[in-house]
Design goal:
Blueprint lengths: L14 E13 L4 E7 L2 E7 L6 H5 L6 E10 L12 E12 L16 H6 L1 H4 L3 H23 L3 E2 L17 E3 L7 E3 L5 H9 L4 E9 L11 E10 L3 H18 L10 E4 H8 L13 E2 L16 E7 L8 H11 L6 E7 L3 E2 L8 H8 L8 E7 L3 H14 L10 E5 L4 E4 L4 E4 L23 E6 L2 E8 L4 H10 L4 H14 L7 E7 H9 L29 H6 L4
Parallel strand pairs: 3-5, 6-9, 11-17
Antiparallel strand pairs: 1-2, 1-4, 2-3, 4-5, 7-8, 9-10, 10-22, 12-13, 13-16, 14-15, 14-16, 17-20, 18-19, 20-21, 21-22
The structure holds aspartic acid.
Length: about 575
């Protein structure tokens, strides 16, 4: 196996054999240089004036695979940019192991190839050092995770891919059964029920680097299949799972050589996160907190204010910077939220803004008292559900004014989630987390709309990196929750019969968490493209451009599967 980039000045004089891809050929006439690339980096090969192989070397096509033997010597023209820049290999023998055609994309970090081309020739794309490094980082993170959890006495246990569906809110991918016509397996959205059953099976501490599948509308940062670091612990309380999660994340960051505070992670309630940042996964690496203003306008009879909540963002010295064009573009972006209005107020000699003439004196005074000084701007967002648009505006402003310090990481937990959300269309509750999450108190189930969950999310740099909960471990409680979710006895029995039955035979209280591995690698690898951290990803429309999956199947296969 080659390891060509380990050689340094101290190795000069050694005879070595090197293999790899031809990264670049430079024919200077009297001299030919070839950059040889392998996983470890670059090594320069040199062929001097009357070298018998000089001609052959100058004809080498990029990306061909060669083997050379030669003697390491000191370079006359050193290259400080690469670790092997002081030396080169004076080639004695050259064997072409595999000749390459001209590749459809350049194998270098800065490529102008279309992503479509890169995904079609993914094996070439993956040769680019940036991607090599990200895939290696993914490996390191996975190993650091295993190291940490093994040391904490967790067992890595696999759970099935061919399942009965685990309803976790998304659509299932299904696989037809050949033996049972009209019957289907579902691919796991997560191993949720299985990991709970492992607790009932007495394994106490479980983890798995688990593939999960969700047939959702895809977005830029979503893939139909993704990987979770999935964890479950018996006899654990919220604080136990959170402590384990924190320890694991700190270990992983350390192993990936990234500075991370050793301070304990902050804990925010869901309510605080929404009120102050308008998001359940806020990016706290910059300020611009939301200021609550609903009360201030409670006596305002303008139709504009009716039934709306009001949040404001104060921008010190923002009056000049926030042009009409800029605020119009923000308004357009937050208008995707229903009945949203954005008002821009500026403090010059007086308070200015289109709404001002319609405001009462005490409203104007109240606004100024929020801290407005001459030259400042106040962005006022109004909507029946103001958190979404106000949180979005805050992010847009943070990005626009480049307030986000990308050199630091900010990690914290969000706790005290509502147990349910109310689905007005379906006229029933839906789980905020999933149906197995325990309420904070059993009494609270009597008023489902107010019940809080024993759930926690881990947020890093404005991304939800992990989420989990303490689980329900009493059959009656689980059945109550299923009923709140609109299921009758028959549905419970059909979908979850096997699961709730297990609760009858002794169920340790338990809880767990799952981390999105892809997201973790993205944060540590500083990329915002999820496809950069997956060796063979799908496009944002769920296709593999290389293998052309999904593909059609033959009539014979369809017949065997009883499909029409
Ligand atoms: N199964 C959950 C999820 O995928 C995580 C958990 O509750 O442990 O979000």
């Amino acid at each position: 196996m080659p390891n060509n980039a380990i050689y340094r000045l101290k190795d000069v004089g050694q005879t070595v054999t090197a293999q790899g891809f031809v990264a670049k050929v430079r024919d200077l006439g009297h001299l030919v240089f070839v950059d040889l690339r392998d996983r470890s980096g670059l090594l320069q090969l040199s062929f001097d004036a009357d070298h018998p192989l000089k001609e052959e070397a100058s004809q080498l096509k990029n990306e061909s695979v060669i083997e050379v033997t030669g003697v390491l010597k000191e370079r006359s023209n050193k290259n400080k940019e690469i670790p092997t820049g002081d030396i080169e290999l004076l080639v004695k023998t050259l064997t072409v192991l595999s000749m390459a055609k001209t590749p459809p994309l350049m194998i270098q970090d800065d490529t102008d190839a279309l992503e479509e081309t890169r995904l079609k020739y993914r094996y070439l794309d993956l040769r680019r050092p940036v991607l090599q490094n990200l895939i290696r980082l993914r490996h390191d993170i996975m190993q650091a995770t295993r190291e940490y959890l093994n040391q904490a006495d967790f067992l890595e246990i696999e759970t099935p891919i061919l399942n009965k569906s685990t309803p976790e809110g998304a659509r299932d991918y299904v696989v037809p059964s050949r033996i049972y016509p009209d019957h289907f397996y579902a691919l796991p959205q997560s191993p949720q029920m299985y990991k709970q059953l492992l607790m009932i099976s007495g394994f106490e501490k479980y983890y798995q680097v688990a593939k999960c599948f969700r047939d959702e509308d895809l977005r830029r940062d979503r893939q139909p299949e993704f990987t979770q670091i999935d964890i479950e612990m018996a006899f654990a309380k919220e604080k136990d799972v959170m402590a384990l999660a924190e320890g694991l994340v700190k270990h992983v960051f350390k192993k990936a050589n990234q500075a991370f505070s050793d301070q304990p992670f902050d804990v925010l309630t869901y309510h605080q996160a929404m009120e102050v940042y308008g998001s359940d996964k806020p990016d706290r690496r910059f300020g611009l907190p939301l200021i609550e203003c609903t009360e201030l306008f409670k006596n305002n009879s303008l139709p504009l204010f009716k039934g709306k909540k009001v949040k404001a963002i104060l921008v010190k010295e923002g009056a000049e910077k926030i042009t009409r064009k800029l605020s119009d573009s923000w308004a357009e972006m937050i208008n995707v939220y229903p009945e949203t209005t954005l008002l821009v107020l500026k403090k010059e000699e007086t308070l200015t803004g289109s709404i001002v003439k319609n405001l009462a004196d005490d409203e104007i005074k109240g606004l100024i008292a929020l801290g407005l000084e001459t030259g400042d701007a106040l962005m006022v967002v109004m909507a029946p559900d103001v958190y979404g648009p106000a949180g979005r505006l805050r992010l847009l402003m943070g990005e626009h004014f480049k307030l986000i310090d990308a050199t630091t990481h900010d990690a914290f937990f969000v706790v005290d989630w509502p147990l349910y959300d109310y689905d007005h269309d379906a006229k029933r509750y839906v789980s905020m987390h999933h149906p197995f999450t325990a309420p904070k108190t059993l009494e609270s189930l009597e008023d489902p709309g107010q019940a809080l969950a024993s759930a926690y999310d881990l947020v890093i740099d404005g991304h939800e990196v992990g989420g989990g909960s303490i689980r329900i471990h009493q059959k009656e409680v689980q059945e109550t929750v299923f009923r709140h979710l609109g299921m009758d006895e028959k549905m419970i029995e059909e979908q979850f019969g096997f699961f709730v039955k297990a609760f009858d035979y002794g169920t340790p209280p338990h809880g767990g968490i799952a981390f999105g591995l892809d997201r973790l690698v993205m944060i540590l690898g500083k990329t915002d493209n999820i496809r950069d951290v997956i060796a063979f990803p799908k496009t944002s429309s769920g296709q593999c451009l290389m293998s052309e999956a999904p593909g059609q199947i033959s009539d014979h296969q369809k017949k065997e599967l009883s499909l029409k």
